[in-house]
């Protein structure tokens, strides 16, 4: 990762955080809890992929339609998160693969 | 009907594909259509996660268009791969329902 | 020569130094948690330092985010840091830990939304 990428990444992240701050309180609370969960589960495209900004897009639409956040995504927020990252690789998957790959290469 | 969620899980993606196949449309409209069909428990968030997956698996074509209220809307149309996936879904559905019907009739 | 360098190769030390610089700015209890996380993750890390990097990055990112919100580190990681690390790396028992994260997420949302007053 070059310096430029890091600076660009920071700028984008700040813009993203500003959008989150502008959401109504209920949306903001749910977004932050979701982000915490997603950070832990660790899908590989989380930091620079379209997932998090996509959630904010979706939430902004919900706000514009005058809906409450749980009305929009249902009360099982964890199930919603799992749906978002279904079929995507996590860092844990990558790590587990790297461990199990080792004995194989040692054999050769 | 209540408590459909678990049973509906594997088939909802096919339902969404079918809805998109008949016309280019967006998340909220898809949700309303499913609700009117009798799946009252389906919320926009569920449809959002399905659309995200369809997009990730390149089964749909997405275009952003301005909406009367709030931020621009994402419209979804099926592409060739999406149509193939939809055909597969109906073939599987037919197989499944015919087997289950047979079971109910006493396995003849 | 530091420990990390010996097990991973020096090309990763630059990234590693960046982690440490970030960790320096955390509050004390968070820094202690970071040390614990390293303690549990790094011994498993021989030859796999590279694939461990994103996991450490995510863990540090989580600490930074939640520290900025003023939450206690206890609330974020729970009591079982070792279990937390197991779940991060997808090791044995990761599934039960992820179930706990799910419950925690829904519980936090319910609690904080009710505090909003409806």
UniProtKB/TrEMBL annotation, chain A:
InterPro entries: UCP029876. Gene3D superfamilies: c-terminal domain of poly(a) binding protein. SUPFAM superfamilies: BH3980-like (SSF158560). Pfam families: DUF1048. This is DUF1048 domain-containing protein. It comes from Streptacidiphilus pinicola.
UniProtKB/TrEMBL annotation, chain B:
Residues 16-87 form the Transcription regulator PadR N-terminal domain. Transmembrane segments: none annotated. InterPro entries: Metal_resp_DNA-bind_regulator (IPR052509), Tscrpt_reg_PadR_N (IPR005149), WH-like_DNA-bd_sf (IPR036388), WH_DNA-bd_sf (IPR036390). Pfam families: PadR. This is PadR family transcriptional regulator. It comes from Streptacidiphilus pinicola. The lineage of its organism: Bacteria, Bacillati, Actinomycetota, Actinomycetes, Kitasatosporales.
Automatic annotation (TrEMBL), chain C:
It comes from the Bacteria. Pfam families: DUF1048 (PF06304). This is DUF1048 domain-containing protein. The lineage of its organism: Bacteria, Bacillati, Actinomycetota, Actinomycetes, Kitasatosporales.
